Amino acid sequence: MLLLGGVLLVGGPVAAQPLPAPASSVPDRLEEFLTAAYQNSPLLGDLRGQVLQNRIDSLRRAAQNRPYVAGNAVAVYAPVSRRFGYDEAVSNGGNYGTVASVSQPLLNGNSLRNDYRLLENQGQTLRNNGRLSALDLRRTVTDQFLTAYAAGQQWAFGQDILAQLRRQDVLLRRLVNGGLYKQTQYLSYYLSVRTQEVTVQQNRLAYRRELGTLRYLCGLRDTVLRPLQTPAPPTHPALAGLGSITQRQYTLDSLNLGLQRQAIALSYRPRVQAVADIGLQSASLIAIQRHFGISGGLQLSVPIFDGHQRQLGYSRLEVAEQIRRGYRSFLTAQRQQLYDQLQNQLQATTQLLVSLQEQLRIANALVEASRQQLATGDLSILDYLQLISSTRNFQFSLTQAETDRLRVLYQLDYLSE
């Protein structure tokens, strides 16, 4: 223990808490977290299932165009007495039969092809929605990864500062005992070390919180606290045009509206189907076995008047097309504005990084020189603490600037898809 100015300082500093050793089973790279998020996302699984359902719907539509065979049986008795009962000219006294009927749509090739195209468009929309959802998930996970990475960097740097202060603490104790510095000056240094210990603990909690959020987004149950690897900055691609994932949904919507309009037109064409049946049918249950027969023919359906529903359907599709154009025009301008803004941010952040790196280099050189002056008593402890504080602030700003630059690069990468 050390007695300074009536203040009793018991024991040495608390040991630092280094980052645990890496565990191979725990992801620590951005790509590993993204892979886990894609595999565990119920939304992406739901969309994959909807794509499979769309393929089944296409097979069902093909089956609907094949002959439809049904078995029908009827047994109806109409009792008649002197003052009760239906006219036998109408009821025949009863109706008994068992018949197998078959129907087959004819001359519906255009409708069938349009239905197939509608289902194909629906499948393409579902697949594009899957890519959009994957892109949104990637954006969310990447942003949280960068947040957790920055928190981990702050924790690591805080531990490094604390280690430097503790090493210097041993020297200052000897100098104070030798009378080179006053005990009150050392007390300020001692309080600074304790403050840095609290800061390191706070940084550790912040990193654990952000890392936990990252694992939560990815559906991981890991609790191991380990450092994250530095993410590789993506390339700087150009802005994707109308062929991008976000723009493609409006192209598919336009195609779908055209197919719906075609479907309305086809629904008002005459419909023809062949019908036939074979079986037993009689007005008498006793004589039914002697009335075996068949029948067949064509069934024609011609729309005549529907209360102007066709025109109303066309009007509704025109409104939907106007809405689609408005969304697409706004999105195109929005993406271009965001791309230009990110370009400017990237340039400004790069310049800030160069400036902060130079300032941090100078600050580290001053700290190194001040250690030598501190050992000879040519520098006050308060001045040394001020240099440490400036270095800490520069490092914090540098970490933030590096994270912001990575965010901008990833946002530009999203706009290229």
From TrEMBL:
Q: Molecular function (GO) terms listed? A: efflux transmembrane transporter activity; porin activity
**Gene Ontology, cellular component aspect:** cell outer membrane; efflux pump complex
Subcellular localization, as worded in the UniProt entry: Cell outer membrane
Q: What is its main location?
A: membrane
Annotated coiled-coil segments of the chain: 339-373
Which keywords does this chain's UniProt record carry? Cell outer membrane, Coiled coil, Membrane, Transmembrane, Transmembrane beta strand
Q: What is this protein called?
A: Outer membrane protein TolC
Classification from the root reads: Bacteria, Pseudomonadati, Bacteroidota, Cytophagia, Cytophagales
